[in-house]
């Protein structure tokens, strides 16, 4: 039987300390399955890694937190263009539900109306190249851009920046996808979400 997920959107200031503790444990368990170094950001009840989200889209089931998307409105720079986006990050699905279609496939349908309410031209996110097939299945609404490097504040040493070769995900919201600015480098001007 397929797990029933109840999705809800929370503004960051709606979350109580117990909510952050539950999310921190969720991230430690989920990201820890990928590599132990991933859990270092989520000590105690810290429920974010880099930039703190503005709002969160959280899926719950009978076992607790099942999936999570964080959202933060920000300007990113592409060449000479400052582009307003709703960055989507802190994406995670509980290990027992991975490959079940719970994450991007059902989450994107919940996420798009929330992003539209933010009145931004585009949703924006990044993933590792290994996740390409996974996100391609998610939605025809996503445009995947490759060959773009992304510069961010280093998560481990905030005095440095790092440049990564990532897949860029663009969700057209108030503008058409062909209006996404071209460029080979995206500057987050801060840490990833």
From TrEMBL:
**Gene3D superfamilies xrefs:** 3.40.630.30
Asked whether the keyword Ribonucleoprotein is assigned, the reply is no
Q: Does the keyword Membrane apply?
A: no
**UniProt GO molecular function:** acyltransferase activity
Q: Which Pfam families match?
A: NodA
Quote the cellular component terms of the Gene Ontology held in the record.
Answer: cytosol
Xref: InterPro entries: Acyl_CoA_acyltransferase (IPR016181), NodA (IPR003484), Nodulation_prot_NodA_CS (IPR020567)
Q: Which keywords accompany this UniProt record?
A: Acyltransferase, Cytoplasm, Transferase
Do you know which NCBIfam families this protein is assigned to?
A: nodulat_NodA
Query: Record's family?
Result: Belongs to the NodA family.
> What's the protein name?
Nodulation protein A
Can you name the source organism?
Candidatus Protofrankia californiensis
């Amino acid at each position: 039987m397929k797990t029933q997920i109840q999705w809800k959107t929370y503004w960051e200031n709606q979350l109580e300390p117990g909510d952050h503790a539950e999310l921190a444990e969720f991230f430690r368990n989920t990201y820890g399955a990928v590599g132990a170094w991933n859990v270092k950001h989520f000590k105690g009840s810290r429920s974010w890694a880099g930039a703190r989200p503005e709002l969160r889209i959280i899926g719950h089931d009978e076992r607790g937190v099942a999936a999570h998307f964080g959202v933060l409105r920000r300007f990113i720079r592409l060449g000479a263009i400052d582009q307003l986006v709703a960055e989507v990050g802190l994406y995670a699905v509980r290990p027992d539900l991975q490959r079940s279609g719970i994450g991007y496939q059902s989450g994107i349908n919940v996420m798009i109306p929330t992003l539209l309410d933010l009145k931004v031209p585009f949703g924006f996110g990044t993933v590792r190249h290994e996740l390409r097939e996974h996100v391609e299945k998610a939605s025809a609404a996503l445009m995947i851009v490759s060959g773009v490097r992304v510069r961010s504040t280093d998560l481990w040493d905030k005095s440095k920046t790092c440049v990564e070769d990532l897949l860029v995900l663009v969700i057209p919201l108030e503008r058409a996808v062909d209006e996404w600015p071209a460029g080979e480098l995206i500057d987050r001007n801060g840490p990833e979400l």
